[in-house]
Design brief:
It is built from eight helices and seven strands; from the N terminus they run ββββββααααβαααα. The protein is an alpha+beta fold. Strands 4, 5, 6 and 7 form a four-stranded antiparallel beta sheet that branches. Helix 2 packs across helix 4 and helix 5 packs across helix 6. The termini are far apart. It comes from Podarcis lilfordi (Lilford's wall lizard).
Length: about 425
């Protein structure tokens, strides 16, 4: 197990050691790193800017003048991995003051060496070049420590023998002399220039007067032209004003027409809304109730239709059942009639002529009824005959001819029946 270490952007974290005897080092700034317990070591080093004030006292220049020079340097540890590793190797475990002392001694050494190669004038008059030279010479050595020189400036240069002040006095005297000469030459040149300026002034004045006259003439001409142009512009403006007034009146009338159109459209919209309202009211009060009534009547009609269909189906089923029952009855009656006929046939076959005779005798009343049917419509029959015995004779003749007629129709000879024989004999 281990811990998670975090570090800000102004500080670098160095994690040494790891699993399986690894000697790899991890450098982290502005981030985080994992360190194992007991087998990993974590150390921190500051990346903040360090301000140094190198000071070299009584250092002899190339001319042998002892000078004291102070400066200000801004340095910091580099964050590139290789240079950060070098800085950690040399300064890890030391505090910021120790690092400052090492870099300060290096800068002061280079500052001393460079002071011995320059003159006082070079150092005093061109401090920026002197500071640049120190920075360029000291940068490689400091860089091999993993440190970068951000800036280096010369703060002060002075001596204890008043050499710099003497240089200042000489320079001051030279400057004063040059100033006096310059004043005399300036006064001379000023007189000459003054005369020249006066002449030039008169020339300029003459030319100015001429130009003023020309300007007055041109002004009057221009004024007349301007007056004419103003009158033209005034007339044009008046016409434009009247034209614009007419246009504005036309626009106003057009706006009034548009307002009337909008009002009419609004009125039309209101009327359309009223029509829509009345239409909805009509729908709500007439159409919808009518549709509801129509729907109700349709539902009633559908119910009646279904009812009639069901009744028809029931009647059909009833008729079918009655038909089936009647068919069964007819079938039973038919079977009974067939059985009856079969029995009659068997009886007729068994009794022979006697059965046929009985059948004919049974049919005779029906035949007589059919024959006498037309007579049933006659209310009264009147027989006209002169003789009473003739009537009797005719009846007897009819009865005598009856067996022959039956024999002709059915093939049955009634004369063989004993009763008929007796009747026939009696008539004879």
């Amino acid at each position: 197990m281990g811990n998670c270490h975090t570090v800000g952007p102004n500080e670098a974290l160095v994690v040494s050691g790891g699993c399986c005897g690894s000697d790899e080092k991890q450098y982290v700034y502005g981030g985080w790193a994992w360190a194992w317990w007991c087998i990993s070591d974590t150390q921190r080093i500051s990346l903040e800017i360090m301000t140094l004030q190198p000071r070299c006292e009584d250092v002899e220049t190339a001319e042998g003048v002892a000078l004291t020079v102070t400066g200000v340097a801004q340095v910091k540890i580099l964050t590139e991995r290789e240079l950060l590793a070098v800085a950690c190797e040399q300064f890890l475990g030391k505090n910021v003051q120790d690092i400052k002392n090492v870099v300060l001694q290096t800068l002061e050494g280079h500052l001393r060496s460079i002071l011995g190669t320059l003159t006082v004038e070079q150092i005093y008059q061109d401090r920026d070049q002197f500071a640049k030279l120190v920075r360029e010479v000291a940068a490689p050595d400091v860089g091999r420590m993993g440190i970068e020189i951000l800036s280096f400036t010369i703060k002060d240069v002075y001596d204890k023998v008043s050499y710099l002040s003497s240089l200042g006095k000489t320079q001051t005297a030279v400057v004063q002399r040059d100033a006096d000469i310059g004043v005399a030459e300036a006064e001379r040149d000023a007189g000459i220039r003054e005369a020249e300026y006066k002449r030039e002034m008169l020339d300029v004045k003459f030319m100015a007067d001429t130009k003023v006259a020309d300007s007055k003439r041109a002004f009057e001409m221009q004024k007349a032209a301007f007056s004419q142009e103003i009158n033209i512009k005034t007339a044009q403006a008046q016409l434009a004003y009247e034209l614009q007034g007419a246009k504005e009146q036309q626009k106003i009338r057009q706006e009034e027409i548009e307002i009337e159109v909008v009002q009419r459209r609004k009125q039309i919209d209101v009327e359309e809304q009223e029509v829509i309202r009345m239409d909805k009211e009509l729908i709500a009060t007439v159409k919808l109730p009518a549709e509801a009534e129509a729907h109700r009547m349709q539902e009633i009609a559908e119910g009646e239709k279904v009812k009639q269909v069901l009744i028809a189906r029931a009647e059909g089923e009833k008729i079918r059942k009655i038909g089936e029952a009647e068919a069964l009855v007819i079938e039973a009656i038919g079977k009974a009639e067939a059985e009856k006929m079969k029995l009659k046939a068997e009886a007729y076959q068994q009794y022979g002529e006697a059965a046929k005779m009985a059948l004919v005798l049974d049919a005779l009343p029906q035949i007589a009824a059919k024959v006498a049917a037309p007579l049933s419509k006659v209310d009264e029959i009147v027989i006209l005959s002169g003789e009473n015995n003739k009537m009797t004779t005719d009846v007897n003749r009819l009865l005598a001819e009856l067996p022959a007629s039956v024999h002709a129709l059915t093939g049955v000879d009634l004369s063989k029946i004993p009763l008929i024989q007796k009747a026939t004999g009696a008539q004879a």
